[in-house]
Amino acid sequence: MTALTLSTAGAATLRADAIVVGVAKGAKGPALAPGAEAVDKAYDGKLASVLESLGATGAEGEATKLPAPSGLKVPIIIAVGLGTAPQKDEAYGAETLRRAAGVAARTLSGAKKAAFALPVEAAEDIEAVAEGALLGAYAFTAYRGTEKSADAAGKGGKDDGAKQPLGEITLLGAKPRDKAYKAAVERAISLTEEINRARDLINTPPNDLYPETFAAVATAAGKEHGVKVQVTDEKALVKGGYGGLVGVGQGAEHGPRLVRLEYTHAKAKKTIALVGKGITYDSGGISLKPPGHNETMKCDMSGAAAVLAAVVSAARLGLQVNVTGWLALAENMPSGTATRPGDVLRMYSGKTVEVLNTDAEGRLVLADAITRACEEKPDAIVDVATLTGAMVVALGNRTFGIMSNDEAFRTSLHEIAEEVGEASWPMPLPTELRKGMDSPTADIANMGERMGGGLVAGLFLQEFVGEGITWAHLDIAGPAFHEGAPYGYTPKGGTGSSVRTLVKLAERTAAGDLG
């Protein structure tokens, strides 16, 4: 993990590999953001014009690299775009700072140390820059060769060209001894470490990450951070009547698991339960996915990874709320023992489900976990899943959908997601779509109408929510795994989508802001 520190040192005196400054789109060309004064002075007040001559505009996502003048103790200056400059009495938004810091950190991969002199006026700004920089510096290198140096390559060794993440970040303009600033940085470090843990899990190949090994990772994380972990294995799931989890996992060599995480606080007045879909590889089962649709299906456990990260984050932050996490883990594979289309499963709730499509498996494992979570009567349940392609069709690759049996709760989650910089959109649960899941054989089918498929999946899950329990469903199928070029603080591969929303929900609940 990239190291991060606060410093009161001036940009002109700090030794590093680079200094990062902000540049915005001004009315007459690129305009330097606060924090760049010392660097601009070293350019004799002409940094903005130099940037303009290099084609910089200050647009968001832009990064311009230029040699530093002799008055500075760094060789390189990185000017990152902040977008349109705010009005005179306004500050840059947290998400703007987050994304700019992420761009800078990605641009500086391979460097040992960089100083960030971005516009910060309060502890919240420092936290945003810290989050963006630490998330932007992420790289998944676990499966890269160990001999990567140029010297090794020149001697016949292995060099895959992969750069290591930026080693150390120093944030300038901060107050290292101020309690609010220290707390902001500590929160950013704890949160981003857990988001990056989730990213690592999502990026891990399915031959190494399967239900048993995922449960082992959760157990180790719980032991490290004071979270109680209980793992229910395949035999216990069969005995306990978890028909959804067992039915989905029975075709795989690696059996399913249900992992319960528990963080408690002595002064907590509320309990929230988080449920994550954890299909460690989704082939579609007997309803096999075609080529072109199964190559990234290691990411189908992103919901469970987000839940693990959120519960551990709550523990690390010492939040005054009880949080339970439920990881519904299984592999969905075709074999002679796999569930067939037309089979009927008896779920943990006692309901029977006719399986019309074995590739609609996520809702089956979630249904069992939701039922089990409801038995403990939490104040609210949120499930998180890469559930439907239909949600991607509806909202695109960067926005997750929110459904709920409580409109006010859905609105709160949407506001929270927007606040922390995660794009989301509230979605309905139209009652007329429920009829499409009627089955002549069982209580309900796992498929309904094709149109509105993401909403149908939400309606299916709602069938397993206990009476009187507030529930929401986050379909993160779009933003959970990014296949394009990195942008902002978002890498290629696993993103850790929804972790920040879940943690902020826990914080709001602890503060009594959600009723």
Fold and architecture overview:
The chain has helices at residues 37-42, 47-53, 94-107, 123-136, 150-154, 179-203, 211-225, 234-240, 243-249, 302-317, 362-374, 389-395, 407-420, 453-462, 499-510; strands spanning 3-7, 18-26, 29-32, 63-67, 76-84, 113-117, 168-172, 228-232, 257-263, 271-282, 322-332, 344-346, 352-354, 380-385, 400-404, 424-426, 444-445, 470-475, 481-482, 493-494. The model is unreliable at 148-159 (pLDDT under 50). β4 (63-67) and β5 (76-84) form a beta hairpin. It starts with a strand and ends in a 5-residue tail after the last helix. 54% of the residues are buried. It is elongated and about 80 Å long. With 515 residues, the chain is of the alpha/beta class. The longest helix is centred in the middle third of the chain and has 25 residues, at 179-203. The strands form four sheets. Strands 8-9-11-10-14-18-15-16 form an eight-stranded mixed β-sheet, sandwiched between helices. It is 33% helix and 21% strand. The chain contains 15 helices and 20 strands.
Assembly state: single chain
Percent of residues in helices: 25-40%
* Low-confidence residue ranges: 148-159
Widest sheet: strand order? 8-9-11-10-14-18-15-16
DSSP strand tally? 20
Major sheet: 8 strands, mixed
Give me the number of helical elements: 15
Backbone structural class: alpha/beta
Distance between the termini: 37 Å
| Rg from Cα | 24 Å
The geometry reads as elongated
- Strand-residue proportion: 15-25%
Give the integer mean of the pLDDT values.
95
